[in-house]
Amino acid sequence: xxxxxxxxxxxxxxxxxxxxxxxxxxxxxxxxxxxxxxxxxxxxxxxxxxxxxxxxxxxxxxxxxxxxxxxxxxxxxxxxxxxxxxxxxxxxxxxxxxxxxxxxxxxxxxxxxxxxxxxxxxxxxxxxxxxxxxxxxxxxxxxxxxxxxxxxxxxxxxxxxxxxxxxxxxxxxxxxxxxxxxxxxxxxxxxxxxxxxxxxxxxxxxxxxxxxxxxxxxxxxxxxxxxxxxxxxxxxxxxxxxxxxxxxxxxxxxxxxxxxxxxxxxxxxxxxxxxxxxxxxxxxxxxxxxxxxxxxxxxxxxxxxxxxxxxxxxxxxxxxxxxxxxxxxxxxxxxxxxxxxxxxxxxxxxxxx
Length: 353
Prior knowledge:
2 domains
């Protein structure tokens, strides 16, 4: 247990929504809680553009008094976000170019992604959708009508991906109302949910949520997002266990982040901890070049070297695939690990579907 967890006053939390509402919303209160008051380098402009949001239970996993804590670095706005960075844009993966209907992104064959909501439990500073126009482009904006019509008409879509924001910020009732509509679409065989909530707010994995997932007609897959083993405490393990008991397949996606997880030890520890919890390490993403996140970038050559060292240390089923997303490509671009110290990076990329 961290010093902060020992010293903090226990918050009376009646349900996950109350816990969500009581999270930290300013850099100063976050730093005060960690004994880092008065720390320089906080950018008020970055805070205005992309406000702080961090659940208290996530902060309890941070190291008290450590400004370099890998969990803190993911969520703390700094002046580096406002520094000019050529090649970084508002929509680095061209989500809007793949718009099929309001809140529907149709990039890859057989899959459609629904922007279910713009809300998140946590605002990660490297988020590739930190500038996304959620107020106009989320699938629930018109009662799901346009999104459901699109899915019904495109019978080649066999998998619906709920994303956001974070779809698990929606209530169980709203999620159930949406997926009940899929019953009339037999071509939809899988339901995939991309979410950070089981990691940052494990209380969200309620009995009602697992009952809903256990009853959906489609095969349920939950892709969580963990970047560091320190994020995965006992409460997260219990939440993931509840999802597994409901028959949910669990995968993880990680973003490779400078000073957060760009070491072999950190990435191996993450894979091993995930597998202990019944989660398959799935993808290790290179950073999407979104404006405000350039300071998190790990060069591709270093990423390939890290991937090679992980593969040499761990069994294959614990090695996530190193990938990047490129606008207009038919799938994620697989990046082969370095074969040696002198690898020139000339290996041809492959596509992951």
